[in-house]
Amino acid sequence: MEIPYTIEARPDTGTYNAKIGMWLFLASEVMLFGGLFSSYILLRVGAPAGTWPHGWLNVPLGTLNTALLSLSAITTLLAWVACKTKNYAKFKLCHGLTLLLAITFLGVKSYEYRDKFHHYEVQLADGRVADGHMIENDAKADHIVLHGHYAESHAELMSPKAGEKEEELTIARKDIKRMENYGPWHNTFLAIYFVLTGLHALHIIGGALVIGYLWGPGSQMWFTNHEQFTNRIEVSGLFWHFVDLVWIFLFPVLYLM
Amino acid sequence: MVFVVVMAITLMMVGVFYANLPNRALAIGLTLLAAVVNASLVAGYLMHIISERRLTLIVLLFTAVFFTGLMALSISAQYSLPQGTTH
Question: What are the phi and psi torsion angles at A128 (to 5°)?
Fold first, then answer.
């Protein structure tokens, strides 16, 4: 049995089924991310003054990621145009570029996550706080080595000073009261940061898998049913543009405010 | 062209961040406005909402209404916290 309306428009909706289906799915995704964004807003405005971190995220890397995703949105559109103009070589190039840009985005995001997991806040017995990136943390050694700086209190860390001098700090384990890295468990900001960007990254991975399939083995449909293939590129492009749209809000909300 | 405009607006947002405007509300307002303009460009021209069918636009209108309601409910919730609790 043939699946109906994969190419021809349905009389009542005016378009093919996959397109309406994708728009309905994207509508549900708006509510998913909307719920998380509204959680962010509540957490942010509800935080007592001086307890919400500023400047903890790498703005140049976030800007780079914005450029990568925006460019990938263009290349995915160009891939669809190539399908419409029946230019296979151009389709392969543009869709392949989209995939490369997606993988690069994930690489940059992984680097940012790794940086957070290697960044530690060490509360010392004398009340001071050491903050920096872990260089040595051998369980058998009686000390750790951080590349960072000392602060008089935890509150000072909420807004790091630009150009703060960083140096190698050797701290004896017996002087450590508590030590924790900047994972999602560290504070509310990092919790919502990892949830928002992690869910977004999962969407990027899913989208990249679909793009990869359509670029690779799925591209056989170009020769067997070109119009349906073009529609598949269009609806996967819609999903990709939505993922870009989410990042367009994520970047300023998390990195710039 | 859309990419150039989106990146120009993004760089403007980054510029506002580094400018460290004394009026925080203005900085947040400008940044959010820029994000909305960027999103509108992507949605309008790259997703072709500008030339979409009426049914799709109706679906998106419902989405916008529910999204706005969700945001309004969440923001208004901060004013209805029970008294005497630590927040």
Answer: -75, 165
**Under 8 Å between Cβ of A118 and A181:** yes
Task: Please tell me if residue A217 touches chain B, with a CB cutoff of 8 Å.
Answer: no
For residue A147, the domain's CATH number is 2.30.30
Same domain assignment for residues A80 and A190: yes
Answer yes or no: do A42 and A160 share one domain: no
Among A38, A73, A245, whose Cβ lies nearest the Cβ of B70?
Answer: A38
Q: Is some CB atom of chain B closer than 8 A to the CB atom of A49?
A: no
pLDDT single digits (tens) A206-221 = 999 999 999 999 999 9
What angle is formed at CA A94 by the lines to CA B41 and CA A99, rounded to 5 degrees? 90
User: What is the distance between the alpha carbons of residues A153 and A155, in angstroms, rounded to a whole number?
Assistant: 5
Are A101 and A141 within one domain? no
Considering the domain architecture, whether residues A224 and A140 belong to the same structural domain is answered as: no
- A252, B28 Cβ separation under 8 angstroms: no
Most A CBs within 10 Å, among B6, B51, B62, B75, to test the A interface: B6
Task: List phi, psi (to 5°) of A161.
Answer: -80, 140
What is the distance of C-alpha A210 from the center of its chain?
Answer: 17
First vs last C-alpha separation in chain B:
47
Q: Would you say residue A146 has pLDDT above 50?
A: yes
Check residue A236 and give its pLDDT. Answer: 95
The answer to whether A42 faces chain B, any CB pair under 8 Å, is yes
| Chain A residues with beta carbon closer than 8 angstroms to that of B75 | 38, 41-42, 45
Q: What is the mean pLDDT of residues A51-76?
A: 93
Cβ neighbours around A230 below 10 Å, total: 19
Q: pLDDT tens across A66-87, in order?
A: 999 999 999 999 999 999 999 9
- Name the DSSP class of A195: H
| Nearest residue, CB atoms, A73 vs list B10, B28, B42 | B42
Neighbours of B79 (CB within 10 A): 6
Q: Does the ipTM exceed 0.95? A: no
Residue ranges of E strands in chain A? 119-124, 129-136, 143-151, 167-172, 176-181
